Amino acid sequence: MTKHMYELSQILHFVKDQTGADEIFENSDINQDLGCDGDDFDELINKFSTEFNVDLSTYLWYFHSAEEGNNIGGAIFPPPNERVKHIPVTPLMLLEFAQKGKWDLKYPEHQIPKRRYDLITNLIIIIVVFSLIIYKCASR
Q1: How many helices (H) and strands (E) does the chain have?
Q2: What whole-number distance in Å separates Cα of residue 19 and Cα of residue 40?
Q3: CA angle, 73 then 74 then 80, to 5°
Q4: What is the average pLDDT score of the chain?
Q5: pTM for the complete prediction?
Q6: Which of 16, 64, 109, 122 is most deeply packed, by most CB within 10 A?
């Protein structure tokens, strides 16, 4: 794979543009220190991949950030990001990945259920609520 030559200043500028953070350091955790989470974090990583030509085929989002929004079902069945230990993504890591042209992180062994029971629970709750609303409206 072709090595690319990027500088830390380019990555810091990119992260600042994406997060709007005033102070960014090479070891800042983009998720926890800069408050970039959910869809914003996902968008940052995808733009990073495009702008710096980084292959994300081995990237596992749930180690680095939570999903967007509230997850009522997550109170009963933990979502993927709550089943693993958080791994920070820092500008220094992004620089390394940009230079290599791939997301080069060895994740620890872990087990994530094939089915997202938290999301299934959310769907059931939505169906029940809408059914009750329709029932109440129809019985008037």
Answers
A1: 4, 0
A2: 8
A3: 130
A4: 89
A5: 0.78
A6: 64
24 contacts 16 by C-beta, under 8 angstroms: yes
Tens digits of residue pLDDT in 86-128: 999 999 999 999 999 999 999 999 888 788 777 777 788 888 8
Residue 123: CB atoms within 10 A of its CB come to 12
One-letter amino acid identity for 23? E
Work out the number of other CB atoms within 10 angstroms of the CB of residue 106: 5
Rounded distance between C-alpha atoms, residue 41 and residue 34, angstroms? 10
Residues 6+ apart with CB under 8 A from 85: 63, 108
- Rounded-to-integer distance, Cα 99 and Cα 5, Å: 6
Confidence label for 75 from pLDDT (cuts 50, 70 and 90): confident
Distance, in Å, from the CA atom of 105 to the CA atom of 126, rounded to the nearest integer, reads: 37
- For the chain, report the end-to-end CA distance as a whole number of angstroms: 67
Mark 56-65 as b/e (b = at least 16 C-beta within 10 Å). eeebbebbbb
Calpha distance 41→54 (Å, rounded): 16
- d(Cα 126, Cα 89) in Å, to the nearest integer? 34
Would you kindly state where each structural domain of the chain is located, as residue ranges? 8-138
